[in-house]
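ERR on first pass: missing label on line 2. Operator R.T. fixed the label and resubmitted. Corrected input:
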Amino acid sequence: MNFELIRPYTAILIVPTGIGAEIGGYAGDALPVASCVSQVCDRLITHPNVLNGASLYWNLPNTFYVEGYGLDKFAAGCWGLRPVHQNRIGLLLDQGIEPELRLRHLQAADAARATLGLSLTDYVITDAPLEVELRKAQSGASWGTIGNPDSLLRAAEVLINKAGAQAIAVVARFPDNIDEEADQNYRHGKGVDAIAGAEAVISHLIVRTFQIPCAHSPALSPVPIDPDLSPRSAAEELGYTFLPCVLVGLSRAPQFIVGETHQLPQPTDIWANQVDAVIVPATACGGSTLLSLNKRRCQIITVLENKTQMQVPPEPLGIKCIQVNSYLEAVGVLVAHKAGINPSALSSKISSLQRRD
Amino acid sequence: MTTHFITAEIDLQETDSELQKAIETELQKEGEPLRWAITSVDVEQQSCTVEAVVTVS
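pass 2 clean. output:
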């Protein structure tokens, strides 16, 4: 048998950003899930919120780091993904970052060049402070807006057109005066990441405008040590920046193939009709990516154990899925699906076929 | 360009394609949708709440 002719099994793992997911709502704490899922599929597509653990990251060779706006476009069939061996990353720094904190980020970037061998262009500082504002919505999700989006886009344009960047790492100064109770909860592994929603808005703006891989790392003042820090949040308190994971993720992030491109197709390109399965928390089925994939021949797996602040189960939206309790079960469903085995055949009771008129 | 956070109530539709279209049409009344998600569903009222950030040029 020629194994090259077998369709590669492709899965997407989604843990939406800023909705208080009990697994994956903190400091890259869905990364162990991604590692396991990547072992049982040929290609895994996931997003920065899953893979970013500040100073911690893990190289998953068959895993593609795709920012949320790009993931929505990919799932809708508008954009494809083109794997690369390497991207030259442009570092975009908010003018609102104080000089010492800026230097910490530049040194983190230099460390990634020297110790990991990543390629970076010269960096750019925005021509105005970005002025990030945080917001908590009625649903409990974190959102945010930025005061100077045009300044962000002008800086990205310089990186792409003058410095030759193929991916953009943004570092924006986030307010230190986050709601104290929410911040404490987050550090103790409870509640919602207060800054995650605003981070997504920043990266979405760049991906929408330039169709280029992008991810965001916040610049924040160091916080006092907390003896009760949750293991799920601890990765964000190892250093002065959250930048290393972003640089590692972007260094191999697939490029986007945009509909009207005149580039020739390549055999490694990935399109939405090649996705076999998608895994999401069972209460967070209201995203564009999932609604798009529900139209396709794609097995949707919802995970009950990963509770979130959302109240959007699959049934009222007409989403057809297999519901499981845990990610361990989800991995089992993927294995069965990949093998062409109906998962119900592995349980003790199988009902008889019924006649349909 | 400015960025704005908005919420909208949308009636559930027959299909998910129609629902996506209805959401985007509603959001476009306020600007260009950048990021959105359905954050709750009211089965009795057959409607859902959408939270979003839109941009206005």
